[in-house]
């Protein structure tokens, strides 16, 4: 064995065998990689992309279009090396071209641009039915619509609001603009404790059934001022003498020039009060004509009375 290892021819033969094995191994790996690359580059792939925005091409100055979906589905098929970048980048456009079409109902085909012509492209839907109408504009007065009015304190009252600007221009198809029943600035008054000033309120447009209409509004917001006051009610007031005058003094009359007073409070409380009970005036120490200030009692549930006091004239017989 030692003699073989020392033999030059033995070493040469072994080296030749090892070189042959190495050559075979390298060539087999290269062939496998080449076959795999060839297969990948030429394999077919199909991908579907949903929620692709639909572009509408039309004369937006003259017409309004309805019946169009906002998004469509696009399916591409072809070599994987071409399909993959299209799906990843989505650098293409799906559109309908309505230029040249007038008012009416039209069936139009979806089109696409920016997709390689090496791919087969399928759009879903392929065609759509659209309605083209002339665009019209009309001015409407803006009214105020209150949100959460039921949460407003029952002792508070919303006075007549002001709106700036008072008019809004509504633009849309003639069939939709004809349905406009009201244009309102929406103001939340649920937490109001005092007058609302310079509120920027969004403008909404409604039909007779109270459905909001999809139209263009100019301006989209207005400035609203809402005066807020305390709920009040005027009721008659009377006075009456209380006690007896001193001996020898005759009181001819006890009167007041104030005929009514103003009560402030919740609506349900004020609703059942139609007058104040007669206010007693003490005459037990009266000896001559005089003027007294008498405090007005505040009825239960009422928050305040105005004025708080009455001037009472007491006339004594000479």
UniProtKB/TrEMBL annotation:
| PANTHER family the UniProt entry points to | CDAA REGULATORY PROTEIN CDAR
User: So where does this one cross the membrane?
Assistant: 7-26
User: What InterPro entries has UniProt attached to this entry?
Assistant: c-di-AMP_regulator, YbbR
Which Pfam families is this protein grouped with? YbbR
Task: Identify the keywords attached in UniProt to this record, alphabetized.
Answer: Membrane, Transmembrane, Transmembrane helix
Looking at the keywords, is Methyltransferase present?
A: no
- What this protein is called in its record is YbbR family protein
The record ties this protein, via Gene3D superfamilies, to:
2.170.120.30, YbbR-like domain (2.170.120.40)
């Amino acid at each position: 064995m030692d003699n073989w290892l020392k033999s030059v021819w033995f070493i040469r033969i072994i080296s030749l065998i090892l070189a042959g094995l190495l050559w075979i191994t390298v060539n087999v790996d290269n062939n496998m990689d080449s076959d795999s690359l060839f297969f990948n580059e030429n394999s077919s792939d199909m991908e579907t992309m949903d929620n692709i925005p639909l572009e509408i091409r039309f004369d937006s100055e003259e017409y309004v279009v309805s019946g169009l979906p906002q998004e469509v589905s696009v399916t591409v098929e072809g070599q994987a090396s071409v399909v993959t970048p299209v799906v990843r980048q989505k650098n293409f456009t799906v559109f309908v071209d309505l230029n040249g079409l007038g008012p009416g109902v039209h069936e139009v085909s979806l089109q696409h641009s920016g997709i390689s012509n090496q791919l087969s492209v399928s759009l879903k839907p392929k065609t759509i039915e659209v309605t083209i109408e002339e665009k019209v504009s009309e001015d409407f007065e803006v009214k105020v619509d209150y949100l959460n009015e039921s949460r407003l304190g029952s002792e508070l009252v919303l006075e007549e609001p002001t709106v700036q600007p008072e008019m809004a221009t509504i633009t849309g198809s003639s069939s939709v603009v004809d349905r406009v029943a009201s244009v309102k600035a929406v103001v939340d008054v649920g937490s109001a404790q005092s007058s609302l000033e310079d509120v920027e309120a969004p403008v909404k447009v409604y039909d007779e059934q109270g459905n909001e209409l999809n139209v263009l509004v100019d301006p989209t917001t207005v400035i609203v001022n809402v005066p807020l006051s305390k709920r009040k009610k005027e009721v008659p007031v009377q006075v009456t003498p209380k006690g007896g005058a001193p001996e020898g003094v005759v009181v001819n009359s006890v009167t007041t020039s104030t005929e009514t007073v103003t009560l402030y409070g919740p609506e349900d409380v004020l609703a059942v009060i139609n007058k104040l009970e007669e206010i007693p005036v003490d005459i037990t120490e009266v000896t001559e004509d005089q003027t007294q200030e008498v405090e007005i009692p505040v009825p239960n549930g009422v928050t305040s009375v105005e004025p708080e006091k009455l001037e009472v004239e007491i006339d004594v017989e000479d």
